[in-house]
Design goal:
single chain, alpha+beta, 2-methylcitrate dehydratase PrpD, 2 domains, four-stranded mixed beta sheet, about 50% helix, MmgE/PrpD_sf_2, MmgE_PrpD_C, MmgE/PrpD family protein, MmgE/PrpD_sf_1
């Protein structure tokens, strides 16, 4: 057997043998930032229509009340909690992003293992290790097939995320090497997610189902449910079936030395990551020149090719649609000076002033433009031209959000659901998660206080 024939085994061996004390401090700190950001997104979107519908449709058929749906009083069975929290954490499109692959890493992994941790006690230290390993797994597998896999039309957060959820849950379950191979094989046979679904509720279903499927994979493997020994790399395995390009060294090289989780980034804007440079630049122009929508004749954007491929919706009809419209995003950035969840409501995409400015926005592909850059030219009605070049958008690896900015984002999302004091308590506990004896404390804190009659 060559090394290329032992990809699944090599990864499984690393996952089983990895220890918390081997993680560098920077990696552990990044895991905390990732989880705090994920919690904020999940709680903030907990009343979204997509979550309400999913729970109304499926909760009646679930099992006993074992785990929390963050931001809600209800408890559901562990597998349902993984699904619902995965949906909730992603539906605002405000969650973390591994920029090399555009995977949203926390959704599949955190949703799976927090639900599991409410069923069996897990310390903060153990949880951070599992979270980190899950993210490492999904991002390395994503690296191996990106961009071809994504270009074909797979939503890589779902298709690679299932491996992350299986690896992380398997670690918490104490799987041995053979069981971890089986868990990864079971994950390989359950890819979920088509890019065709972007702009609909089904996009958020992808990380939810990936979390649920990955957790199922680990639970089955723990009981001896077998799968292929080469689920990832076999001729008819996951990588060969879902992509025409594969680089298995991305999965196996430097395990424990090169940490993909350090490349995770956090969104300051609640929309597709490729729009962020345009939003950033438009907000800067607005603030620097006191721009008013009615004084603008045109807004011209020069963008990376992926911007129009992913976010070229000219006339979005719903808030979810708006998250994939660079035109709408530029308009709200100038009018409101922000692009949070309120700027992507159904009402916002039909707002008359926004529509008028949106119609003045054009976007042109520049093949030389980096993915996190943009050039903006605003022409005013008096003929004056204003220009802004953004080399690295805020939230990128080169201009990361600070802990204070993450805290402000968290508070803005969580306060309307839990209230100010409750949100502050959850945030403080989140920053201290590594020292918790039982990580389920965070799930309990993420539940609203039930009103008594």
């Amino acid at each position: 057997m060559t090394q290329a024939d032992r990809v699944t085994q090599t990864l499984a061996r690393y996952l089983v043998n990895a220890r918390a004390d081997s993680l560098p401090q920077a990696v552990r700190d990044h895991a905390v930032r990732t989880f705090v950001n994920w919690m904020g997104c999940a709680v903030g979107a907990s009343r979204h229509e997509a979550v309400e519908i999913a729970m109304a449709a499926l909760a009646p058929f679930g099992g006993p009340a074992q785990a929390t749906v963050l931001g809600r009083t209800e408890k559901v069975d562990v597998l349902s909690a993984a699904l619902f929290n995965g949906i909730s954490s992603h539906v605002f499109d405000f969650d973390d992003t591994h920029l090399k692959t555009v995977i949203h890493p926390a959704g599949p992994v955190a949703s799976a293992i927090l639900a599991l941790a409410e069923h069996r006690p897990v310390s903060g230290k153990e949880f951070i290790l599992a979270l980190t390993l899950g993210i490492e797994t999904e991002c390395r597998i994503g690296n191996a097939v990106y961009p071809n896999h994504y270009d074909i039309g797979w939503h890589i957060t779902g298709t690679a995320g299932v491996f992350g959820a299986a690896a992380a849950a398997g670690k918490l379950l104490g799987l041995d090497e053979q069981q971890m191979i089986w868990a990864l094989g079971l994950a390989a046979t359950q890819p979920v997610g088509l890019r065709e679904m972007f702009g609909t509720m089904t996009k958020s279903f992808h990380p939810g189902r990936a979390a649920q499927n990955g957790l199922v994979s680990a639970l089955l493997a723990a009981r001896g449910y077998t799968s292929s020994q080469q689920g990832i790399e076999a001729k008819r395995g996951w990588a060969n079936v879902t992509s025409t390009h594969r680089n298995y060294a991305e999965i196996t090289d430097g395990l424990g030395e090169r940490h993909e989780s350090l490349l995770n980034s956090y969104k300051p804007f609640a929309c597709g990551i490729v729009i962020h440079p345009a939003i950033d630049g438009c907000i800067q122009l607005r603030n620097e020149h006191g721009l008013k929508a009615d004084a603008i004749a045109s807004v011209q954007l020069k963008v990376h090719p992926l911007v129009l491929e992913l976010t070229g919706k000219r006339t979005p009809q719903t808030g979810l649609d708006g998250k994939f419209s660079v035109y709408h995003s530029a308009a709200v950035a100038i009018i409101d000076g922000r692009a949070g969840e309120h700027q992507y409501s159904d009402a916002a995409v039909h707002d008359a002033a926004t529509v008028r400015l949106r119609d003045k926005v054009t976007a042109e592909i520049d093949p030389a433009m980096p993915a996190d850059a943009v050039h903006i030219t605003v022409t005013l009605t008096n003929g004056e031209r204003l220009e802004k070049h953004v080399e690295h958008a805020i939230g990128s690896i080169d201009r990361p959000m600070s802990n204070a900015e993450l805290a402000a984002k968290f508070t803005d999302l969580v306060e309307p659901i839990l209230g100010g004091a409750h949100a502050a308590k959850l945030l403080e506990a989140g920053w201290q998660m590594e020292s918790l004896d039982n990580i389920a404390t965070l799930a309990e804190l993420a539940r609203p206080v039930e009103k008594t009659s």
